[in-house]
Amino acid sequence: MTDAAELIRRTRELLAAHPPAETGRTDFLRARFDAGLAWVHYPVGLGGLDAPRSLQPVVDAELAAAGAPDNDPRRIGIGLGMAAPTILAYGTEEQKRRFLRPLWTGEEVWCQLFSEPGAGSDLAALATRAVRDEEDGDWIVDGQKVWTSSAHLARWAILIARTDPDLPKHRGITYFLCDMTDPGVEVRPLRQITGEAEFNEVFLTGVRIPDAHRLGGVGDGWQVARTTLMNERVSIGGMRLPREGGMIASVTRTWRDRPDLRTHDLHQRLLDLWVDAEVARLTGERLRQQLVAGQPGPEGSGMKLAFARLNQEISGLEVELLGGEGLLYGEWTMRRPELVDFTGRDAGYRYLRSKGNSIEGGTSEVLLNIVAERVLGLPVEPRDDKDVAWKDLAR
Fold this sequence. Notes:
Layout: H1 4-17, H2 25-34, H3 56-65, H4 77-90, H5 93-105, E1 110-113, E2 129-132, E3 139-145, E4 156-162, E5 173-179, E6 185-190, E7 199-209, E8 214-215, H6 221-237, H7 247-257, H8 264-291, H9 299-322, H10 347-353, H11 364-375, H12 390-393
Helix pairs in contact: 1-3, 2-5, 4-5, 4-6, 6-9, 7-9, 8-9, 9-10, 9-11
């Protein structure tokens, strides 16, 4: 079994063979993947060494100390946090070997084609259709997706589409890997309240997807998608932060630097939110330790709920603390950013952007249901459409 000493030895061998100062960033990341040091808990040959997930920080610390380049989780977060674990769980060996390496190195950016104008909170009600071409076995996809982060940058997408309208909505869905450069894929920007368009709507018109790019069995798409969604909520709500990191850092910095803005009421609210943020951070650490033993569970939904609430309350407090200054907004220029940067922007941006936290990655209303039913064990909410064929519901 691979232990910490073995990982340190392998990491130092990598650094000796590919000195960071003399090796291009992409070449180094490729070599790191091939050495099994990308994500050590993944299988041998797929960027890992079948080692315990808890040993990844050993590798990361050695590489950081040597000044080695790393990938950018902010830019390729959908690939790392959602596509990769789903491909690992359900992909064929050929799919794993084709997609995981360029995904991890960042050479291929991924996006998520799940939500639709009529199927946001009720994702299983999606209407995008995939019909099998009987001659060559390809799937012809038509439909519209919405709120798609990074679609304007992505080479690949994880996509769910309805393949059997005669079945109930959860059972007639299939999961695909879609090439965003294929004919029939059109990406349009969605301008947000911040003025930017980090999200997009995607129109699919006669898009051909080979059956080799189907992930999981025909009709098993909802089961596959649940793996993606659980990992998504953990990646959004359970990101690793230092103490007093994330959104709380900005408001505490302002509090310390600007004593003229302080009031007793604001002080009490800041203390309450600081404690809540620290509890959420420690809970996230515990959740990551649980991941070492297996797949994420519904607890990630609770973390995502806390993340959204805290970001909105903390950003609101910051705007109040700044008074008139908090009403100022840097710029409202239309642009399509590669990254979402909460900490490098002004208070007005953080306040407006955080409103989307209770929508993206699963609405807070849906996540409350998941926590109630799957974590707390409360009675399941009645669902009259559960066993009704989708085509009857769509009429």
